Amino acid sequence: MAKIPKLTTTLAYDRYMAGQKLVSSVDRPWRHLVLRSYLEPDEQELLEAPGLQDVTLMTLGSGAEHLERNLDGRWESADLRMGDVWFVPPVPISWRWRSISDEPLSTVHLHLERSLIDSVADQMELGGSRELSLGDAMQFHDPLIAEMLGALHRAAGDPADSRLYVDALTHALAAHLLQHYSRGRHAKAGLPPHPERLVPRRIRRVTDYIRDNLAADLAISELAAQAGLSSFHFARVFRRETGETPHQFVTRLRLEEAAKLLRATDQPVLQIALAVGFENASHFSVQFKRGYGVTPLAYRLRG
């Protein structure tokens, strides 16, 4: 058997997994993260895997298991159930497990780029307090992290979920990890020192920019830059001012513009989808039906 390296990349990590792959975000146009899920064997005697530089979190997609890991020559164990989260330290680890549930055993693996953690730490003005202190715990309970992992897992399996939505979730997860699990002083609370009277004007600048660039690939970082705010604070301020998340606002405007084009022109559906910023006709059709209750073609025929 080939020797296990000390470190490997997130993409190469897949070759060390024992289960059958269920979902993968590798082919999705996502930034700063990779998410994969696996249907695991009910019992695994030994699985050896190298460390990863990316921040790696795992949770259960279904079932429950008795999990053991060997870290630095010491075996430790825990019974893991739905809602539990565990952190994978950036060192080689040996694993073994057995199912303790009648349900199929599946796991969700999320890998966050270290550069994203550093970027969000800068936005939160954490200075040197950006190292996460998760490595000593075999498992930890954080309902919000578990819910975010579940939302990202669902998004990885649903082509209708947009990159802007995933982008916002990913930044929120990184901020939550730094806020609650970074070493040193806590993150500064509240908004950065931008005068409140300027905030509505900043958000209007963003909404005007969105209207003028619906067909563009709109990222949270780009919209935040238009407002002169950090990505960490932008989503919260935007929702407070507009009543919608950036993802909801962009999607609504794209659908409204598409509806106008369907009524006023005979352009093909694919052409309209691309013109208002959807990745493909299938994604557009799913989102349009969610918003208007009918497919784009049915909407056009209805007049």
UniProtKB/TrEMBL annotation:
Superkingdom field = Bacteria
Entry annotated with the keyword NADP: no
Entry annotated with the keyword rRNA processing: no
Q: Which UniProt keywords apply?
A: DNA-binding, Transcription, Transcription regulation
Regions annotated as coiled coil: none
What would you give as a GO molecular function for this chain, any one? DNA-binding transcription factor activity
Name the InterPro entries for this protein: AraC_XylS_family_regulators, Homeodomain-like_sf, HTH_AraC, HTH_AraC-typ_CS, Tscrpt_reg_AraC-type_HTH
Give the HTH araC/xylS-type domain ranges: 204-302
List the SMART domains hit by this protein, alphabetically.
Answer: HTH_ARAC (SM00342)
Task: Identify this protein by name.
Answer: HTH-type transcriptional activator RhaS
